[in-house]
Specification:
This protein is of the alpha/beta class and 296 residues long. The protein contains 11 helices and 8 strands. It binds guanosine-5'-diphosphate. Residues 108, 110-116, 193, 248-249, 251-252, 274-277 line the site of guanosine-5'-diphosphate (GDP). Keywords: Cytoplasm, Endoplasmic reticulum, GTP-binding, Hydrolase, Nucleotide-binding, Ribonucleoprotein, RNA-binding, Signal recognition particle.
């Protein structure tokens, strides 16, 4: 189920509940069952969905609600709040400050859109007057440096990398040092991906992280990853200190639920979403407007 369909299903379930003459336990349960099914079909992790259902039932205790209360509104508000709660880990991520050098390290599986997202992130800030720079510490994938170089050149963003050096830690450290000397205020380090979660990848990420001491580590995840989202995000979080999430390919036919699971697994907020292959197809992610839009 794509994200728009998920929103549609939840809205319809709420509307149906709203149309009922009397809102009793059965009407509430029917409504929650439809919402639960829609969330599961959108690849939201089972435990999250179950917790959400329990929470709503606790908040909306029909027996306790005084006769004058608008039960419909209370239920709608509870659903809205619970969806926001899943997407909001409760603490903001590190926010870089213009003019002060920050190192931002990107991690994620190969094909997730990591390299594309590094450039989008740099370009977004450049347009706002920052001085970003890109470091290609991906020595694993042939062509990774060329791809980053091409993107960086197109966006007129300084870059650093090597065709010869095979040690990602060395490149990362050199790149960060160089751009600190050049007074760049947003030094973005692109790391290697792998096709799947592997011990070697996680070890490399740890080493790059230890050597460059990033202010923020951003986990990039393809929105079409499905039910594997929670475990994948958790595996990255357990290796390095992931502090924020960017979900890519939100323009496709992806099931959007992975975003909710990634937040839960990493306890980190989604800060941006990728909505296309182009440099400017990149949006700031805000929980409440996102959920409002989702519910139409
Ligand atoms: P990496 O291996 O994680 O560095 O992934 P890449 O940055 O090379 O991206 C893999 C593919 O996904 C490329 O074809 C990108 O153009 C594409 N891609 C990345 N982000 C998005 C997005 O938000 N939407 C769409 N439609 N494609 C994307």
């Amino acid at each position: 189920m794509v994200l728009a369909e998920l929103g549609g299903s939840i809205s319809r379930a709420l509307q149906q509940m709203s149309n009922a003459t009397v809102i009793d336990e059965k009407v509430l349960n029917d409504c929650l069952n439809v919402i639960t099914r829609a969330l599961l079909q959108s690849d939201v992790q089972f435990k999250l969905v179950r917790d959400m259902q329990t929470n709503i039932k606790t908040i909306v205790n029909l027996d306790d609600l005084a006769a004058g209360h608008n039960k419909r509104k209370i239920i709608q508000q509870a659903v809205f709040n619970e969806l926001c709660k899943i997407l909001d880990p409760g603490k903001p991520s590190f926010t870089p400050k213009k003019g002060k050098p920050s190192v931002i390290m990107f991690v994620g599986l190969q094909g997730s859109g990591k390299t594309t997202t590094c450039t989008k992130y740099a370009y977004y800030h450049q347009k706002k007057g920052w001085k970003p720079a890109l470091v290609c510490a991906d020595t694993f994938r042939a062509g990774a440096f060329d791809q980053l170089k091409q993107n960086a050149t197109k966006a007129k963003i300084p870059f650093y990398g090597s065709y010869m050096e095979s040690d990602p830690v060395k490149i990362a450290v050199e790149g960060v040092e160089r751009f600190k000397e050049e007074n760049c205020d947003l030094i973005i380090v692109d790391t290697s991906g792998r096709h799947k979660q592997e011990a070697a990848l996680f070890e490399e990420m740890r080493q790059v992280s230890e050597a460059t001491k990033p202010d923020l580590i951003i986990f990039v995840m393809d929105s079409s990853i499905g039910q594997a989202a929670f475990d994948q995000a958790l595996a990255f979080k357990q290796s390095v200190a992931v502090g924020a999430v960017i979900i890519t390919k939100m323009d496709g036919h992806a099931k959007g639920g992975g975003a909710l699971s990634a937040v839960a697994a990493t306890k980190s907020p989604v800060i941006f979403i990728g909505t296309g292959e182009h440099m400017d197809e990149f949006e700031v992610f805000d929980v409440k407007p996102f959920v409002s839009r989702l519910l139409g």
